[in-house]
Specification:
single chain, 443 residues, alpha/beta, Rossmann fold, pyruvate-formate lyase- activating enzyme, six-stranded parallel beta sheet, disordered N terminus
């Protein structure tokens, strides 16, 4: 490549528009108008760090633009030499439309992400090239091939990415997008391999960690660029490696950031870890509880860890929240043992344990998951578009719950859990916890 040329290639890295709360009109209407869902909406803002990493791996002689269709309109009249698109399953339909539009203009398009990884042949019908798995080890080769007009049909990395070799993401490319949160990833891989999740198909079962100095450098970068922003740690399960997590959290404490993350419920058994999570600025943790049925939880994850902790959930939630760390419980409805009472059972559990927040979803047979294989064999998957795979829309038939009952049940549950009365109860509950913690610190 001629290093004297200011811009060799003009590259767009695109995140297609998502459907936030699905196509359930009653649920969407309530969600968008309620005063008590505003915090929830803010907490799920921002963009995955993947595109910022690829931008950082791109030599500076290329001109790179990150486009997030959730906050800006795509200008298809703007010319690019290469368009890279990443998508989850619910974004796939829109990703294909975006790809098709640019390919009409003879622009080279490459698509990656979870959906492309588990559905590469389908994705290839809308792209010049498809990335299967992690893209970082392949990006240099992809850029070389794109520059020489020789993109391969498929790229698949022979080995997992060494997180220690990744650059600081180009967070400055997110300027003017007005995100409430910016994302950082400290680990990759999940050892639990849940039957409804395809993340291990991209990141593997091996748990990898990023160098702590690297994470700190990313935090410093974000503080410098966006001093009023909060942080989302996007790891599927941030605290699996206890030793690493504690060392990292100790280093984060002095920066006085505010963040959210994801974990499993077992952290309740580690007081030292809980203390560090609180001191490092965590406001709440998303915890996948999935179901309150022992039968549903049988075999749902490797080693039946979620089932193991079922009876301990109330005491563990109380313990975590006593440290001033909110628990956002994630529940899935539509497992085989569920019936129409499942929505009320979840709601009652949340009320009784005063969870910080709640996500109730509908079992969704994502490509690449074990649950999809099972439901396909039972002929229970509906012929719906990928944009219906929001986790709030119905894509399966169920022996005891109809489509209308799913939609009515989930809407009513969200209305109850985001009512004024429960909101005030939660505020008072956590105010008391914060007051007690403050008094303990004075002693």
């Amino acid at each position: 490549m001629n290093r004297n040329i200011t811009t060799i290639m003009k590259i767009a890295l695109v995140s297609p528009k998502s459907v936030f709360m699905g196509k359930n009109k009653k649920l969407a209407e309530f969600w968008n108008q309620s005063d008590y869902t505003e915090t929830y909406r803010e907490e799920w803002s921002g963009i995955s760090v993947a595109l910022c990493i690829l931008a950082a791996l791109t030599p500076r002689e290329h001109k790179v633009k990150i486009i997030d269709e959730n906050v800006e309109v795509i200008n298809f009249s703007e010319r690019y030499d290469l368009v890279g698109i990443t998508c989850m399953t619910q974004q796939a339909t829109r990703a294909y439309q975006i790809a098709d539009e640019w390919r009409k203009q003879s622009v080279a398009v490459i698509i990656g992400g979870i959906h492309a990884t588990v559905s590469p042949e389908e994705t290839k019908t809308h792209a010049d090239s498809v990335v299967i798995g992690e893209a970082e080890n392949l990006w240099k080769e992809i850029l070389f091939d794109a520059y020489n007009k020789g993109l391969k049909p498929y790229y698949k990395s022979a080995q997992l990415v060494d997180l220690s070799k990744l650059p600081i993401p180009r967070y400055e490319l997110l300027k003017n997008k007005n995100y409430e949160y910016h994302w950082i990833q400290t680990t990759r891989g999940c050892p639990f391999n849940c039957i409804f999740c395809a993340a291990s198909k991209v990141y593997g079962n091996k748990y990898r960690v990023k160098a702590i100095e690297h994470v700190i450098a990313e935090i410093e970068c974000l503080i410098d660029l966006y001093p009023d922003s909060r942080i989302i740690f996007s790891d599927d399960n941030m605290f699996v490696n206890r030793r690493y997590a504690k060392e990292l959290l100790q280093r984060i404490v002095p920066y006085k950031i505010r963040y959210r993350a994801q974990s499993d419920i077992s952290i309740a058994e580690d007081d030292e870890l809980l203390t560090l999570i609180r001191k490092s600025g965590c406001t709440f943790l998303f915890v996948g509880i999935e179901s309150l049925s022992e039968t549903n939880l049988e075999g749902i994850d490797r080693n039946n860890k979620k089932k193991k902790y079922l009876l301990q959930l109330p005491e563990h939630i109380k313990k975590i929240q006593s440290y001033g760390i909110g628990v956002m419980g994630g529940f899935i409805t539509g497992f085989d043992e569920d019936d129409v009472t499942v929505f009320d059972k979840i709601t009652e559990f949340v009320f009784e344990n005063i969870l910080y927040n709640t996500q109730i979803s509908i079992l969704t047979p994502f490509p690449g998951t074990e649950i999809r294989k099972k439901l396909l064999s039972e002929n229970r998957i509906l012929d719906t578009d990928w944009e219906n795979y929001t986790v709030f829309d119905v894509n399966i038939t169920h022996p005891r719950i109809t489509k209308d009952q799913f939609e009515e049940g989930i809407t009513n549950a969200y209305k109850k859990l985001n009512s004024k009365d429960f909101y005030l109860k939660k505020m008072m509950h956590f105010k008391n916890i914060y007051t007690q913690l403050a008094n303990e610190q004075k002693v």
